[in-house]
Write a structure and sequence with these properties.
five-stranded antiparallel β-sheet, flat, 17 helices, Arc Repressor Mutant, subunit A, 8% strand, 60% helix
Length: 412
């Protein structure tokens, strides 16, 4: 690559940083040889979503073979969408700018079910995949068309250094009596807020959804986004929301939620908080966040279990699609099968096989509700190698067959 070409592409680094700031999406600057000269990435693909080595080449080749005013809406096998535009110097192609990933489907749970089914991914990764896809921007056709047109236009010209013009700062007159009154009120508000934070954390740690929902209706102190940064109220609000995310994370840890679940949900909401466009959206997001933490603790917490049962439950959740028997689990945990069976029954009031079957049937329902995957395929997805056995287990737990369940959910 010539020095002039390298200089031109390096000049686009600043443009890429501006695009990232405005769109809150990942940005990549790719050269002619498919090398990533710059990657501004906040969304790291879960390991189960394998990267495609030829993605950059495919995007570059597509852009090179089309007019210079074209942009490419690229969608890979995992439903991850990108917008790319070429960097041209007259008729010479020098590389491209890629924005994404994003998704265009707002119904993430169903979307993830389709991705898992279509790509034969392990169902035990559902939580991680849902967290990842929920963290992505949902972009409409009109929005990504505007992004594409913007990319085409800015990719044809070099960066221009700008200068900011600021206003003079006006110093307000301080009324000491009002200031004293305000400080007293602030002290009371802060004391109430910290007391409510403790109550909220206790409720999340217990997975107490009823208390969390009641708390959210009667108390607004935690979500009172006061202007800690007066010139930027949205920044002030985001800072408080990030602190709330940390509090929820600590509460979930106290509730004995596995670190994998904590990491995924915490990372997801950190990204969503930064992307929030206004205060109303941020307040709604915080309530969703609090409830999701509480739900995870309620479903996956092993707080009241003995150490050996905690390990067994986590092993089941993370290997649901694999062959699972009492002996398999005992061998993986290096414990005696009889001892594990006895402790599991004592702690959960059910035996291991029944526990596994209930978890698998709950997972199967998500695919059957979609109606686009056969009963046999669903059986294999959730860990059953025998279609007839799957049907018997499903009917035992739900009182109807998988086919009847599918028809009932898709007849409306």
């Amino acid at each position: 690559m010539s020095e002039s070409s390298l200089f031109e592409l390096n000049d686009f680094n600043k443009i890429c940083h501006m695009l990232n700031t405005m769109t809150k999406m990942d940005i990549r600057l790719i050269d002619l040889d498919e090398n990533a000269l710059l990657q501004i990435v906040d969304h790291y693909r879960p390991s189960v979503l394998q990267s495609f080595d030829n993605e950059y080449k495919r995007i570059n080749d597509t852009l090179k073979s089309n007019p210079t005013n074209s942009y490419y809406h690229y969608i890979n096998a995992y439903g991850l969408e990108y917008i790319a535009a070429g960097i041209w110097n007259k008729a010479d192609f020098h590389g491209c700018i890629i924005i994404g990933p994003f998704i265009s489907s707002p119904t993430v749970m169903e979307f993830v079910s389709d991705i898992i089914s279509r790509n034969n991914l392990p169902v035990s990764q559902r939580q991680q995949l849902e967290g990842f896809y929920k963290s992505l921007s949902v972009v409409t056709r009109n929005e990504y068309s505007c992004i594409g047109e913007l990319l085409v236009n800015i990719s044809k010209q070099n960066y221009i250094q700008s200068e900011i013009i600021t206003t003079d700062i006006i110093v307000p007159t301080i009324n000491k009596e009002k200031l004293k009154e305000s400080l007293f009120e602030s002290k009371q508000i802060i004391e109430i807020r910290y007391e409510n934070e403790k109550k909220l954390m206790d409720a999340i740690a217990k997975g107490d959804k009823e208390t969390v929902e009641h708390f959210s209706k009667v108390s607004t102190n935690i979500l009172d986004f006061s202007n800690r940064i007066p010139e930027s109220p949205i920044r002030s609000a985001k800072n408080i929301a990030l602190v709330l995310n940390t509090l929820c994370r600590i509460a979930a840890e106290r509730g004995n939620l596995h670190p994998i679940y904590i990491h995924n949900i915490s990372e997801k909401f950190a990204i969503l908080i930064e992307r929030s466009p206004n205060l109303n959206h941020l307040k709604s997001l915080c309530m969703v966040m609090i409830n999701e933490y509480c739900d995870l603790v309620k479903i996956y917490s092993t707080k009241n279990y003995s150490p050996i049962v905690k390990k067994a439950v986590d092993y089941i959740h993370f290997n649901l699609e694999e062959p699972l028997t009492l002996n398999d689990i005992a061998a993986a945990l290096n414990v005696n099968p009889s001892h594990l069976s006895r402790k599991f029954k004592e702690d959960t009031n059910t035996n291991i096989i029944d526990y596994i079957n209930h978890k698998r049937i709950d997972e199967a329902k998500l695919y059957l509700q979609r109606g686009n995957t056969s009963v046999t395929e669903v059986a294999f997805l959730v860990g059953y190698n025998d279609h007839n056995y799957f049907t018997r287990v499903f009917k035992k737990i739900t009182s109807i067959t998988p086919s009847q369940y599918m028809k009932g959910k898709n007849s409306g």
